[in-house]
Amino acid sequence: MALRALTNVKTLGRLRHQQIRGLQTFTLPDLSYDYGALEPAISGEIMQLHHQKHHQTYITNYNKALEQLDDAIAKGDASTAVKLQSAINFNGGGHVNHSIFWKNLAPTREGGGEPPHGSLGWAIDQHFGSMEKLVAKMNAEGAAVQGSGWVWLAVDKELKRLVVETTANQDPLVTKGASLVPLVGIDVWEHAYYLQYKNVRPDYLKNIWKVINWKYASEVYEKECP
């Protein structure tokens, strides 16, 4: 009985420590559509593996690194805290990027692929000349990413203009500028397309536009540029 009480006290102590330090764990977000709903542009097999395995792995490793960082800080272990930054940046970036990516996709029956109208459509025409020119630019820059990474359509909320950027590995868009807000992010890691498109990334980039959720992108744009 005394041992159980001591265990409970230790457990409560750890919980209080986590609450005081604001330690938070992250979980895999649900998708608003079925894995097979984006076919034929993206196969259900790819979507399931991408979501359940790859994204979950980033979250698991992110939570682990944050817990280790919390312990290092509590112990005053600056060396370990610094060493953990790489894992936190990589896995945290993977979680951030994929959480955006799922929202950037929608089945065609729910409006996926329908070009934006309103203020975002007008801004695309103003900054890139046309929707077709924007797609060509993003496809070219996405295909040119060496190794793994992302290609983004973003709004610079300070300059009030649209830009296309690429990021390496799992670097989130904010690493290219604090004022950049992602509207559309396309994952060009091989795990996003290889089972279906093999090593032909341009074909994947060509077809993913059929399921891009421009409604979501428009909502973000209108919020940042009212």
Automatic annotation (TrEMBL):
Protein's UniProt keywords contain Glycoprotein: no
EC numbers on record: 1.15.1.1
Keyword line: Manganese, Metal-binding, Mitochondrion, Oxidoreductase
Domain Manganese/iron superoxide dismutase C-terminal: 117-219
Localization (cell): Mitochondrion matrix
Binding site for Mn(2+): 50, 98, 187, 191
Keyword Metal-binding appears in the UniProt entry: yes
One Pfam family it belongs to: Sod_Fe_N
Top-level taxonomic group: Eukaryota
Substrates-to-products reaction catalysed: 2 superoxide + 2 H(+) = H2O2 + O2
Signal peptide: none
Cofactor: Mn(2+)
Predominant localisation class: mitochondrion
Every Manganese/iron superoxide dismutase N-terminal domain range: 25-106
Single Gene Ontology MF annotation: superoxide dismutase activity
InterPro entries registered for this protein in UniProt: Fe/Mn_Superoxide_Dismutase, Mn/Fe_SOD, Mn/Fe_SOD_BS, Mn/Fe_SOD_C, Mn/Fe_SOD_N, Mn/Fe_SOD_N_sf, SOD_C_sf
One term under GO cellular component: mitochondrial matrix
Alphabetized PANTHER family for the sequence: SUPEROXIDE DISMUTASE 2, SUPEROXIDE DISMUTASE [MN], MITOCHONDRIAL
Subunit note: Homotetramer.
UniProt family annotation: Belongs to the iron/manganese superoxide dismutase family.
Function: Destroys superoxide anion radicals which are normally produced within the cells and which are toxic to biological systems. Destroys radicals which are normally produced within the cells and which are toxic to biological systems.
Protein's recorded name: Superoxide dismutase
Species the sequence originates in: Helianthus annuus
